[in-house]
Protein: Na+/H+ antiporter subunit D
Amino acid sequence: MNALVPLPVLLPLFATGLSLAAGIRLKRFQRFISVAVLTAVVVISVVLMIAADDGPLSVHLGDFAPPLGITLVADRLSGLMLTVSSLVTLCVLVYSLGQGMADKDEETPLAVFHPAYLILVAGIACTFLAGDLMNLFVGFEIMLVSSFVLLTLGGTGPRIRAGSTYVIISLLSSMIFLVAIAITYAATGTVNFAQLAERFDDLPLGVTTLIQAMLLTVFGIKAAVFPVAAWLPDSYPTAPAPVTAVFAGLLTKVGVYCMLRTETLLFPGNRLGSLLLVVALASMIIGILGAVAQTDLKRLLSFTLISHIGYMVFGIGLADREGIAGAIVYVVHHITVQTTLFLVAGLIERRGGTTELTRLGGMARSAPLLSLLFFVPAMNIAGIPPFSGFIGKLALMRAGVDNGSVLAWVLVGGSTLTSLLTLYVVVKVWNLAFWRSEPPGQAAEGTVMESQEDDADDADDADDEADVGGPAVTPQDNQGIPVRPGGGQVVATSITGKAVTTTKRPPRTMLAATAATVVLGLSYTVLAGPLAAYTDRSAQELLTRTPYIEEVLRP
Structure:
């Protein structure tokens, strides 16, 4: 069974080579490779999750023992994260296939999408399975390289700017990470998690606290917690819908996973627990207030993402069995629901021509299936019973009450307020985009939505006509094309940044993939008992530490 541990990393990397070799001339083969490999990763992840319930699994690549070899470890937490992430990435891939085929994107950018996406999946799996700090860093860098390609697909101006911001922030966090790794190795002579868990106890308190603070900073940037989350609302919304969905759903949770792993395995005792609770509270309140102020759906969802990361940090900050278990439940829930909401946002943009809520309406009548696909995850993320969002929030609040400290009670109140404001936000979206009458400016079926390059060309034409004394062309002169408040045409929804055509009936493949993520989110409610029991055992294993250490260091 241990031989299966490296496969979630190796299979996508192997498929990347095949996908690049296939290229644009063998589009169907390229799609088949991607779907087949991710399906295989789902099966392997489920097997690992079940097997890890009997104890951690490990493999030393090349049969080199720590600290020389590369160690990959699958325990309950990593097995669960692998399973959820592989299911979500498969659904998003199918969604992207539907979007690409509907837009007839057959140019080079789409041929690059599949290899970049597979590399991203391999990087995510590497971080979940990494048994040492160095390979955790390698996983981060694999994700960074593929993320920049995916964020800038099509080469539009906004995507390049957003990708540049993302890369700069990521490189800064990588530099801090490398310095932390260097200090760790200089102090202990190893970067292997199991060995560090034994050797950190012998270090001066100041050294371990410095390393802990640096690692928390790195993982906080990745997770987009306040005050290092300002980059996210400007980076994610410009990307294609499937890219934004997998980034929002998964990449931020990689940072949360790393917090869970290091805070329980390397830094027991919760020395910085109060700081984490303050950060959690600030992320919740500031994030949701930012969402309240938004009128663009993608930016609104980006701020709710920041806010709900606070719930997970809340559980980590409590650092007890109930808090850790609640955090794991909420991570699983949020990966799926946040991904679903961004996929729905892509469908709304395709149906209405924009994600600007002031220019949407009437979709409850004109697109009832799309309305349902939004309503279910919206109620889920708001924490309405009996959805998994309610289960996760209730577990975290009960853990806060059981903790009994003043700061924990403040977090319970902050969690309640954040949940109510989240409900207000999703109800606002429902009222504006779905419930009210369709506004006169909404794009009709068949309207060609212009890309950013087309918009720039139109602006240049308008300037040229004005210079020669002709009538200046304004955005309102483009009949049938909706205009954002303050001017400027709507950004295209195409993966490659090309112009697309709105439609009242989104492609069935996109609808089916989105519906699959909705069903996956609902399954957490149906399987709430087994899920809660599994996460409780996972939390106990994390806090005990002994099973992990013994598995990695056994002869």
